[in-house]
Amino acid sequence: MLRVGFEIHQQLDTRKLFCGCSSELTDSWELSVRRQLRAARSELGEVDRAALQEERRARWYEYQVPRASSCLVELDEEPPHEVNMEAVEIALQVALLLNATPVDEIHFMRKIVVDGSNTSGFQRTAVVAMDGYIDTPQGRVGIATVCLEEEAARKVGESGGVVTYRLDRLGIPLIEISTTPDITSPEQAKEVARRIGEVLRATGRVRRGIGTIRQDINVSISGGARVEIKGVQDLALIPEIIRREVRRQRWLLEVAEELRRRGVRAEEVGGERADVTELFGSTRSKVLSGIIKRGGVVLALGLRGFAGLLGGEAGLRLGAELAQHVRVRAGLGGLFHSDELPAYGISEEEVEGVRRALRLGDGDAFVLLAGERSRVEAGAEAVAERAKQAVQGVPEETRAAQEDGTTRYMRPLPGAARMYPETDIPPVEVSRELVERLAEELPELYEDKIERFVREYGLSRELAEQVVRRGEPELFEEAVRLGVAPTVAATALTMTLRELRRDGCEVERLGREVMLGVFSALAQGRLTKESLPEVLRELAGGAELEEVLRRMGGKATEEEVRRLAKQVIEERGEFVRERGEGAAKPLMGVLMSELRGRAEGRMVMQVLQEELRRFLEEAEVKAER
Amino acid sequence: MYRGRAAELLGGIEPGTRVRVHKGGRTYEGILMPRSELGDDRHVVVKLDSGYNVGIEVSGARVEVVEGAERRVAQPPPPPPAAGGRVVSVLGTGGTIASRVDYATGAVHPAYTAEELLGAYPELAELAELRARVVFSILSENMRPEHWRRLAEEVARELNSGAEGVVVTHGTDTMSFTASALAFMLRGLGKPVVLVGAQRSSDRPSSDAYLNLRSAIRVALSDLGEVVVVMHASMSDEVCAVHRATKVRKMHSTRRDAFRSINSPPLGYVGEEVVLGEERRRRSEGEVVADTRLEERVVLFKAYPGVSPELLEWCVDRYRGVVIEGTGMGHVPESLHPGIERALEEGIPVVMTTTTLNGRVDMKVYSSGRKLLSMGVIPGEDMLPEVAYVKLMHVLGVAEDMDEVRRLMLTSLAGEITPRTLPEVF
Ligand SMILES: [Zn+2]
User: I want to staple A3 with a disulfide (CB 3.0 to 4.6 A). Which of A181, A333, A371, A448 is the partner?
Assistant: First the structure.
């Protein structure tokens, strides 16, 4: 039985949550500071295991400080200011749209995060509402909590043990929506994510664009364990990620069963270790000889009963899982394991030597770790721990989503100990009056809006759906208010923009202001609907609206069309004489492209046919003479 | 703590108890948290199993204790590991560096003992054998001259019984006052006495406490023989500055690098190593004596447009010494002249410093300054007003007569007066 739950994170389109800085991302920065973080104990005296693992690495964090979007608050050099009430109201609105009940008093917490993404070492987060739900064709899914929190800093690089972040993103208000683990299929998961995304966008106050919405997915199967997959940005990938995780967990369960069948006991795993540096003294493995030359060591770790289980199909290799743990927890590049050896310059004799050193039999496997002694030892611990878990089944953990739908180990699941009260921020009372006012002002949901657009504006259902889901419904309605025909406005905002994007135009230039300018020119008759794609193309290329209107704007007069038609016909006299009136269609294309949409098609065709007839008559007269 | 309607609802259920709060068909289960004294009496706070706290309004709510649940209480940190080597004494006085969240008020309070603090940073024990002890535990805004005296005696005792140096953890607000007081009171000092604090409380991952404390211990082992303040030199966690006790001032309310040396450069810097300049007093042998005689009836009086002359008259009636923070090079409104004149006639020394902090008072340039000089006002040179205040307490405590007071105030006793000011210090 598959159980899936979600956490959806969406940035809000307001200033930052705890200071007056704007939420715009910037490319430049003027100052940088370097910091270190240490895990703090929770108020109950526990240290979080995920936090501890980060701290063991004793890393430096460098923060780039753009003046435009960061101040002393982001730098952790000044306490947070009072919470941004606009963000609180948006979060409450989303909560109400998701049928959740607001809490009576919002308490901000410090969620310990010592990977450097928060200068303070914690993320400020608060439950705003609980116990909501969302309906899908596959059934109702619970909304456990709606939280309001601060976005983390943006990671911009990592080298030589220093992780670099930019502070522009830190502190942007973020809504986190957590579902209950009621989702039972990959398709339902996608549907839930889509519907929640629509609720968020319906408020009209969320940020759009890459990275402004992210999903974390929790997956578990019967007998498996809860695995959290972080950072899914592409909705379309959700079903695939879930399917792959289900396969991975099933496979881990099979591995565990096989190990138990072979009599492997968790408490005995990973005990055999031997320093085999000397054995590789004259190895032909470039990796190993390089490490040994630099004073590193080679450590072998025996895995009794694991033979044949370390290699295998991509994504389902125990060897790869071990290597991910070694990378994350010991900072080593990776490992070699016996299922893939001899290879990579490591010889049969060397493999045998390791087996002898560890006194391994045929059914046993080993891994080789090489590097600085302290790292290798930490790596051996990581391998032993992960191999022990292999006997038990699926370990609970946090994994990172990759672009191809696979995942890799990130860290253990964080425990509940990572929260303690943010005493710098007083609790925010959510009064009944506030909730009532917000409930009255709730935005229209997408489904309702689509139906209204069909009803009120006579759009086809398909076009209405496109405008609402993928277009700009607010802009559409403004265009209609300006006097643009609904279908024209809707088409421009959906199909036309899509075509321009496909052609590689910079449609980002066609913001709200630009589009409104175009729509009002259209409503005033300063350009035709036929010329709209061309005008937008020019504007996307960086041209000014007034200049484009001067150049191609204004409807072509009938005389102008006639003059152009005559010219086109005369230039192609032979073709016209050959085809007779049948030349009208091909010539229409030529004419329309000359006019660049500045005249109504029907009028152009009429003029063209008239001129064609006149030309042919004259030609006949000439021929008769 | 809970009061009023919330207390009524709870009926004596203690914070830390696992409860279920039923309200409006909904149940919130978790641990009952204490209520901040500043919070209202209409909400109870529950920590859910997810770790989040939520506040529940009491009307229509019902609370039930979950039987059999284990009560969770805060654990103290492990004791610091024992280590050998050179001895550094760490004396705790409270402040942010030794603070943690107080769940009764919801605020940051001094609560860590010096031992607990070191227990939280076990690697500090690799630097030296640390002997941690709490002298008192107060917020530095509550520090009084009697605390300076006690601290001076404790520091002297530590140094005379084998410590290589003493680290004093202290709240940052008034740290420079205590530093000056120790600098004037510790006679024959030939070892480092290092005051250190934190601008971010030590229960935060981003606290500046660790670097400051580590740097302070390093300075306490270094070739130094005076009282200093060691705090972040910049907003980065890389280097701390070593400031002379009598030249340092907290110049920012919140930043890590709030402490700045005024009118002279820092004595040195600490990163992985301690680098000290030639200006410093070096380590030397000898007995340290705490001369804790202080005349507490000294007032720090600020001159500004519209200041009331009666206020000064009132002070002259009650105090034995006046330090004025004058404008610019050391001027005051003429309306204060009668009060100053009376003070001097009555044998109450008046010392002039400047609100600009940076630069030296010079009362010869304008006639109003010359007038004050002729009355007998003592020019405070480039002393910081707070330093002059502490120094006058000390001088009035030890001097026999007015002439000696004047002579001592014009003499640099602990580096508080610098004869020449380099352009780069401002
Ligand atoms: Zn800011």
Answer: A181
List the single best residue of A7, A55, A63, A76 to mutate versus B (max B Cβ within 10 A): A76
Separation in Å, CA A204 to CA A105, A251, A468, A473, B415: 26, 44, 12, 10, 63
Cα–Cα distance for residue pair A173/A152, rounded to 1 Å: 10
> A453 and A464 in contact (C-beta within 8 Å)?
yes
Are A68 and A197 part of one and the same domain?
Answer: yes
Any domain includes B76: no
HEC string of A471-506? CCHHHHHHHHHHCCCHHHHHHHHHHHHHHHHHCCCC
Mean pLDDT along residues B155-180? 96
Backbone angles phi, psi at A357, to 5 degrees: -60, -35
Can you state the percent helix, strand and coil of chain A, rounding each to 5? 45, 20, 35
Which of A165, A197, A226 is at the close of a domain?
A: A226
Range of the domain at B246: 87-290
Tokens of B423: 């352009």
Residues of B in contact with A119 (CB under 8 A): 206
Contact status, residue A123 vs residue A150, Cβ threshold 8 Å: yes
- Quote the mean pLDDT of chain B: 91
> Nearest to residue A84, comparing CAs of A118, A124, A139?
A124
Name beta bridge partners: A147.
A127, A176
Q: What is the pLDDT of residues A408-456, one digit of tens each?
A: 999 888 665 567 888 889 999 999 999 999 999 898 888 889 999 999 9
Query: What residue type is assigned to position A385 of the chain?
Result: E
Contact at CB, A33 and B236, closer than 8 angstroms:
yes
Q: What is the pLDDT of residues B78-134, one digit of tens each?
A: 555 555 689 999 999 977 676 665 443 344 555 556 667 666 777 788 889 988 888
**Torsion angle (degrees, nearest 10) of CA A151, A153, A154, A158:** -140
Tallying the residues shown for chain A, one arrives at 625
Number of separate helices (H) and strands (E) present in chain B: 10, 23
Model confidence pLDDT, tens digit, residues B292-305? 999 999 999 999 99
Check A417 against B210: CB less than 8 A apart.
Answer: no
Q: How many domains does chain B have?
A: 3
State pLDDT tens for residues A48-97.
555 555 555 568 999 999 998 999 999 999 999 999 999 999 999 999 99
Q: How far apart are the first and last CA of chain A?
A: 91
Q: What is the model's pTM? A: 0.80
Nearest partner of A122 among A213, A175, A51, A61, judged by Cα: A51
Cα–Cα dist A344/A300, whole Å: 16
ipTM of the complex: 0.91
Query: Which residue is listed with tokens 């490319």?
Result: A27
Q: Do B167 and B261 belong to one domain? A: yes
Element spanning B365, H or E: none
CB contact under 8 A, A131 and B26: yes
